[in-house]
Write a structure and sequence with these properties.
The chain is of the alpha+beta class. It has one domain: Glutaredoxin, CATH 3.40.30.10. Helix content is 52%, strand content 9%. It is built from 11 helices and 5 strands, in the order H-H-H-H-E-E-H-E-H-H-H-H-H-E-E-H. The protein has a 5-stranded mixed sheet with strand order 1-3-2-4-5, with helices on both faces. Helix 3 runs parallel beside helix 11, helix 6 crosses helix 9 and helix 6 crosses helix 10. The N and C termini lie far apart (38 Å).
């Protein structure tokens, strides 16, 4: 069978295996910012209640396997053997992604990543056109010099996305992030390797049926949108308890600490 047909067959198999989760991601994309209904709590509050009521509900083993757990991944932070992995599909032009990055993610890092429970794996999911694509490649290029998370912080700072992500602006962000060799950074962001890496992440997200950013997987549980802290807290804690009961995580083998790797 031709190579392209093999790839297409694998994509179809993945799509079939996560069909229900894809529907959930699509529905969550719509409901993540839905206003309150009369006499009821917000959809966000209901999402948190669902997690606490049944830790197993909404968890898909097929999705849990998408965690790469590569100790040298510069676009990840936390131990490679952490009991919980949160995969984050996001776009640097996305306002809700920025809100999550500024308001929620730092707390998750302090509370769960630093003490070894959680690993966060970033996936570039540019959906807002050329600027998004360029920013994603810039983030990847910063990662090549071990400065992805610093670039991530600079790119998501208040007012940053409004300045656009042209080449000049990306160089500014690289300097702000502490990238040592900006010349190499520029070459890397325009490389075939950068385009291939971004495309790989993008195709993974589309294969899941993700239609908006940010979208997350917490040990196979889909979460969509910049949800309140309690939604992530409850999903992470439920996943940690389940991993503990299953005897997963905590070994020294393959352990990676800190914010990604560098060359």
């Amino acid at each position: 069978m031709p190579k392209n047909d093999n790839k297409k067959s694998r994509n179809i198999a993945i799509g079939a295996g996560v069909a229900v989760a894809a529907v959930l991601l699509g529905v969550a994309s719509y409901t993540a910012t839905k206003p309150e209904d009369a006499g009821r709590g917000t959809v966000k509050e209901e999402a948190a209640a669902d997690v606490s009521a049944d830790p197993q509900n909404g968890v898909y083993p097929e999705l849990e396997k998408l965690a790469r757990r590569d100790a040298g991944d510069p676009l990840a932070q936390g131990r490679a053997d952490a009991p919980v992995v949160m995969v984050e599909y996001a776009d640097f032009k996305c306002g809700f992604c920025g809100k999550f990055a500024r308001d929620t993610e730092p707390g998750l890092v302090k509370k769960y990543v630093d003490e070894g429970t959680l690993r966060i794996e970033w996936r570039n999911f540019p959906i807002f056109g050329e600027d998004s694509e360029r920013a994603a490649r810039g983030a990847w290029a910063a990662g090549r010099q071990g400065r992805f998370w610093q670039f991530h912080e600079a790119a998501y700072a208040d007012g940053s996305k409004e300045k656009g992500f042209g080449e000049g602006r990306l160089k500014e962000l690289a300097r702000e992030a502490g990238v040592k060799d900006v010349g190499r950074f520029v070459k890397d962001l325009d490389s075939d390797a950068a385009r291939a890496a971004v495309k790989k992440d993008q195709e993974e997200a589309y294969g899941l049926g993700a239609a908006s950013t940010p979208s997350f997987l917490v040990n196979g549980r889909p979460i969509s949108g910049a949800q309140p802290d309690q939604v992530f807290d409850q999903a992470i804690e439920a996943a940690a308890e389940q991993a503990k009961s299953a005897g997963k995580g905590g070994s020294a083998a393959g352990q990676g600490a800190g914010k990604g790797g560098s060359e």
